[in-house]
Design brief:
Order of helices and strands: HHHHHHH
Radius of gyration: 14 Å
Largest sheet: none
Distance between the termini: 42 Å
Oligomer: single chain
Number of helices: 7
Number of domains: 1
Length: about 150
């Protein structure tokens, strides 16, 4: 049976519902944290390519400063997605770079945070041995849900 393109877990709906009521900046922090957890998959595959890291850094800068320049956010997102395309068959690295691209886009549209988390969970799944992938992905989604809950309480 072919695995789904994106990670799918029982927590998906709960995460979406929780995210729907979450403050924009908290969602951005969450997206950056989710993408940051899987960034090593990309950096191990493409050492020296800083585009996904720069996307996450741009998002964190927006959270700290509140300064939003659409051209900068767009450029960072597109650069991270270009990096994802360049890793070709390395699914974990590609998903990690896409998580970074979606995360920075959350500065403009908060719902991109959900996509960042999904790509991060997909990266975990694809980096894990097939027999353990489902459990690893579920643990990642559980961490994401718990982390979002913690941010909500702050």
């Amino acid at each position: 049976m072919k695995k789904p393109k994106m990670a799918v877990t029982s927590l998906d709906k709960s995460i979406e519902e929780l995210a729907a009521g979450t403050d924009h900046r908290k969602l951005a922090i969450w997206a950056a944290d989710c993408a940051g957890r899987v960034l090593p998959y990309f950096e191990e595959r493409s050492p020296g390519d800083n585009r996904p890291r720069e996307a996450i850094d741009a998002l964190r800068a927006w959270v700290l400063t509140g300064v939003f320049k659409m051209a900068d956010i767009r450029r960072a997102a597109l650069a991270a997605h270009a990096a994802a395309r360049e890793v070709e068959e390395d699914n974990a690295a590609r998903s990690a770079a896409r998580a970074a691209g979606q995360a920075v886009a959350a500065a403009h549209v908060p719902r991109h945070a959900i996509a960042a988390a999904l790509y991060a969970a997909t990266a975990v799944r694809d980096a894990t041995n097939v027999s353990d992938a489902g459990a690893a992905m579920a643990r990642e989604r559980n961490w994401q849900y718990q982390h979002l809950l913690e941010l909500e309480l702050c």
